[in-house]
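Propose amino acids for all 187 sites.
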């Protein structure tokens, strides 16, 4: 199995592999074009996002600057909004549902490294996917760690560090992020 094919599945992968470096370089070129695009040049921004990301639903807005590793592992539903200065480390899969609001400076990390320092010396990494359900609002400055699923209609308070799954229809905040209360029942 090639190195690029390993990582979205969570297998240990070498990020310095030539194919991985090439894919990351392609994303950098597209990100430079996107981040330097002019205000109001929506058609050009949409074209770039279509080339960069794995899936872009209708009505998606991403405010530059935006940063990611590859882009191809990011799948966005309809009516998704990323505010300024968001970072998505996407060697692993990132799936975002419909009608999702993501505040400024939010960071999503699918990558993790071995805890044992001898293993880390090989500079290998593995991934765990991130999934964000429909109608979620993620407050600015939040960090979402690898392997996390955020249930639909949840609200994540600004500045939270999300290390565990968040159920649907709750308000969750803090570092580490914890559920404060239910805001909407199942439906």
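Proposal:
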């Amino acid at each position: 199995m090639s190195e690029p094919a390993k990582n979205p599945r969570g297998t240990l992968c070498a990020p310095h592999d030539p194919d991985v470096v090439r894919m990351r370089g392609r994303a950098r070129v597209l990100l430079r074009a996107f981040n330097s695009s002019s205000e109001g040049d929506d058609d050009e921004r949409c074209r770039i996002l279509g080339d960069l990301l794995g899936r872009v639903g209708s009505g998606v807005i991403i405010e530059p600057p935006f940063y990611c590793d590859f882009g191809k592992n990011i799948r966005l539903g309809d009516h998704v909004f990323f505010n300024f200065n968001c970072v998505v480390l996407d060697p692993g899969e990132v799936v975002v549902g419909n009608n999702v609001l993501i505040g400024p400076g939010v960071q999503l990390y699918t990558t993790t490294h071995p805890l044992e320092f001898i293993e880390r010396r090989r500079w290998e990494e593995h991934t765990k996917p991130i999934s964000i359900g429909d109608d979620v609002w993620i407050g600015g400055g939040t960090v979402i760690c690898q392997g996390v699923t955020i249930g639909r209609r949840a609200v994540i308070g600004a500045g939270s560090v999300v290390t565990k799954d968040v159920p649907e229809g709750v308000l969750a905040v803090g570092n580490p992020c914890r559920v404060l209360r239910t805001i909407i029942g199942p439906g």
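The first strand starts at residue 55 and ends at 56. The chain has a mean pLDDT of 91.
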